[in-house]
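Lecture notes, part 5. Sequence design as translation. It can be helpful to think of inverse folding as translation between two languages: the language of shapes and the language of residues. The source text, in structure tokens, appears below.
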């Protein structure tokens, strides 16, 4: 499993480290709800500052329901479509489907990596990226 992505047109590498206390032996199905929340929070903190500074008015929701079609979902207006000084609207929502993510991974380590990728993918949609562009970035 690779924890880093090499940026195109740059020698700089973005390195993503899993939590130090992650147990690669723990089955994903045995990860508690509290531990999953911790993994999501840890993944969110891995977002590079030059990206995270653009994330505003977004709620991240962990949905315990199994969704056979989705690992995550962005609902709202992409930031690129916001009007200047737009106010008074509900926050955009990124939903992570906990049980679906657990079902497609084998270990806690796999669960963390897939959750991080899913979160970054949905944040990409929030920032206005389509699936083609996200795919080029590995998400």
């Amino acid at each position: 499993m690779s924890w880093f992505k090499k940026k195109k047109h740059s020698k700089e590498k973005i390195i993503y480290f899993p939590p130090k206390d992650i147990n690669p032996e723990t089955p994903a199905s045995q990860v508690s709800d509290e531990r999953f929340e911790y993994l999501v929070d840890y993944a969110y903190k891995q977002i590079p500052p030059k990206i995270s500074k653009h994330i505003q008015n977004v709620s991240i929701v962990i949905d315990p329901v199994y969704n056979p079609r989705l690992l995550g979902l962005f609902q709202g207006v992409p930031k690129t479509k916001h009007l200047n000084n737009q106010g008074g609207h509900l926050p955009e929502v990124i939903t992570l489907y906990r049980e679906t993510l657990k079902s497609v991974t084998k270990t806690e380590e796999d669960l963390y990596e897939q959750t991080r990728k899913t979160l970054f993918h949905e944040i990409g949609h929030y920032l206005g990226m389509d699936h083609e562009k996200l795919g080029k970035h590995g998400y």
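The translated text above is only one of many valid answers, since several sequences can fold into similar shapes. Residues 78 and 128 are 5 Å apart (CA to CA).
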